[in-house]
Amino acid sequence: MSILETIENSSLLPDKYKNMSVEEMENRVREIKEKFGTKLYIPGHHYQRDEVIQFADDTGDSLQLAQKAAANKDADFIVFCGVHFMAETADVLTTKNQKVVLPDMRAGCSMADMADIEQTERAWVPLQELFGDTILPLTYVNSTAAIKAFCGRNGGATVTSSNAKKMLEWAFTQKERILFLPDQHLGRNTAYDLGIPLDEMAIWNPDTNELEYDGEKDVQEIKVILWKGHCSVHEKFTVENIKDLRENDPEMKIIVHPECSHEVVQLSDDAGSTHYIIETLKAAPAGSKWAVGTEMNLVKRLGDIHKDKTVISLNPNMCPCLTMNRIDLPHLLWSLESIEQGTIQNQIIVEEDIAKDSVLALERMLERA
């Protein structure tokens, strides 16, 4: 059976859930949560649907949920409402007795899929030949456990959009250069904020296995090597979106996530992590107007919360992230009832050797968070 078939079969929702009303499903979720108490923990990422977030014990961005998962020692079952790499991180950071479940195995991240371990290990050889032992690998937490383990084995760490600047500053105290995986935009925007000029950054193309940079530049002057990956959602916010808004509604403030392109970030009024965006809008005065460049579920939720402000998407044609949006109420209930019946569905288990090295990368980050 292929990997795709395995995922499809493990995500095949039983018919009974298709025939239940929303009220019935919500009541059952509440019953199971009450029954298990602290033995059940449901973390929910900010980008999840409202129908799922309402049952989350904690909500947060990747860093917050990683910290909360690591601190949770009571729960026997962690039902992670997020995507695959987040559930892997939870499994790595929790004890062997704790079981991590992802309600829908199709909940993934296109960015994480843009860097696999074979590509990374293949890239490491010519990069070491070119630059010697001067490179420290950093990976955005939006990456597979295998990529995190690679960074851990090679002295590197993970980063989030909340602490990327702090982690890059640390990395430069360790080595002369950084290999930043898998999101080129977060790496570029963060390095630029630290004063590194664009012409001292290069792109590693895993498809051609080549370093792309200004040919007139001495390659030894390159300080940051950016993996050629991106977020398919944040890359859809464009310079044209900003120009249209400036012309049609000049009072609108524009705030975007640093996974957006460098050009978009530079033209915006502000940029920061999911947590930063949430806190900025919370502190904004009543009557203020905001165009937000991040995932639609969160933008809509912010608009619902801050009814005294105008909150819209920077891209009026934006749709929710397809993979981040996979987990719905029926899949959440299915996972909870499976736990209740002792037939756990979609448990996430990271191999021990990968988990061991992943922990090194994650702990280096959490020590500085």
Provide a quick synopsis of the model.
It is built from 16 helices and 15 strands.
Protein described:
- It is a single chain.
- This protein has 369 residues and is α/β, with parallel strands linked by helices.
- The chain has three domains: 133 residues, 3-Layer(aba) Sandwich (Rossmann fold); 120 residues, NadA-like (Rossmann fold); 80 residues, NadA-like (Rossmann fold), CATH 3.40.50.10800.
- Helices cover 43% and strands 15% of the residues.
- It is built from 16 helices and 15 strands.
- The strands form four sheets. A six-stranded mixed sheet has the order 7-6-8-11-9-10, with helices on both faces. Strands 13-12-14-15 form a four-stranded parallel sheet. It has a three-stranded parallel sheet with strand order 1-4-5, with helices on both faces.
- Helix 8 packs across helix 16.
Largest sheet: 6 strands, mixed
Using the CA coordinates, give the radius of gyration.
21 Å
Helix content: 40-55%
What share of the residues does DSSP label as strand, in percent?
5-15%
Fourth-tier CATH superfamily name of the largest domain: NadA-like
- The tally of domains stands at 3
What name does the CATH topology of the largest domain carry?
Answer: Rossmann fold
> How does the overall form come out from the CA principal axes?
globular
Number of helices: 16
Counted beta strands = 15
Q: What is the element layout, followed by pairings?
A:
Elements lengths: L2 H8 L4 H4 L3 H15 L3 E2 L1 E3 L4 H4 L4 E3 L1 H10 L5 E3 L4 H10 L5 E3 L15 H15 L3 E6 L4 H9 L3 E3 L4 H11 L2 E5 L2 H10 L7 E5 L4 E3 L11 E4 L11 H10 L4 E4 L5 H6 L2 E2 L2 H10 L5 E5 L2 H10 L4 E4 L15 H13 L10 H15 L3
Parallel strand pairs: 1-4, 2-3, 4-5, 6-7, 6-8, 8-11, 9-11, 12-13, 12-14, 14-15
Antiparallel strand pairs: 9-10
